[in-house]
User: Fold this.
Amino acid sequence: MFDQSLSLENLFRDSRWVYGLIGVVCALIAGSLLGAYGIMGALMAVGVPVGLLTLVGILLEPRLGLLIYINLSFILGFTRFLQTEAPLGMSLDAILSLTLVSVFLNGKRMAWSRLKNPVFYLLILWLTYTLLEYYNPDAPARQAWFYHIRSFSINWFFLAIIVFVAPITRSDIHTLIRVWVGWSVLAAFWAFKQQYIGLAAAEQRWLAEGAERTHILWGQLRSFSFYSDAGQFGSEMAGVTLICLIFFFESKRWLNKIGYLILALIMFWGFAVSGTRSALFGLLAGYPAYLFLMRQLKPILRGIAVATPVLLVLVFTNFGDSIYQIYRIRTALRPTKDASFIVRLENQAKLRAYLKDLPFGAGIGSSSGAGQRFSPNHFASQIPTDSWYVQIWIETGRVGLSLYLFVLAGIILTGVYKVWQIRDDRLRIIMIALLAEFIGIALVSYSNPILGQFPTSTMLFINSVLFATGERWDIPTLPKKPPLHRYEPQPLHRQHSF
Assistant:
């Protein structure tokens, strides 16, 4: 008679058999890959299961996809160490698209009503304009449109949908800030290593391929860490310095104050060794924005007391000029004596004449990297942009630039209104810090293409939605109690009518 205890159904009821069988199969597959492809096969044996688990995890929980996207934005900065022509940046787009798909698959858990927000409407307006730019008749290479529209509008729009509707918690916001500051600390120490110890072979090769012209000035290295260039690295360091300074001023516990002050000093020196003078204006704009948003006399007076002596020393003295980094920072406050600033103004004069009859610009993708790749002989690709707004101006015209500035102003004004409605003190400080940093980087983007470069753009796009919806994490409004009335004695005998 057949023994039921040995049936296939009972065999798989014991999970140990299932795990054992899976382990044997995986071992056989891994052995086959290793034998056939060597080290590459071993990497495939590890990478494929991890990739499948990541895929399933993102589809089940879009917040996981968002966290992976943030970390990958920083990790891709190490691509200069990989000698490959593979478009690794496309993996970032793939994670973002997969996360957006997850949002729709988990649609019942999403708060779609939060899309009724001025920031979302502004992003739709800008996205629509950039999509229509595909049909710009003056575009020299239409295929280049795809490469720049992602950083212009699509990435921001996709991230906005995800952050608006996903069930993000206050704990998630704290995690995001920790990840951001953690990567920034690593970036600062990586820059210190470049400045005081030396460059890796891959970094030296990157300089030799053309970056040396802008990253070694008068024999001094402008540290770039693992970012795209020193301009973005310095601006990011200045932005995170501002965040840490705000937390330092607003923390109640002295232990926390000491920690934030140390972090602020680390980030500030990271900004200093980058040699990115214009990044100073991220602090000069973001710090007053923080004081304005606080709407309290004490922080304003404290801020003036801290900032005024520093500015006076930088503007009216030569103290510290023997230290190259301090000298570079000081020259940012004297732009009319700076040769590179004068050259930028001359380039903008040439562009003004060229774009006079092009109200919609030369087409998205006609300048900068995509322009040099697809239309290297076109006028727009031969003029250095040196500015995010100049790039927007070249590629979308004065109409596009005006619309873009309107969108940025609308986002900032929405953020100001929203943070002023928050009742929870701790949450309000966090949102004010994010908004002040956004304002600072928006100003710095006049001289550097920061708003379109990840990981900085990743954080800015996410932060713009967070401070525009800060009320969703606020303390709930308590129902109003009925007014108390004085006790009025009632008669002992009451007449009732039937």
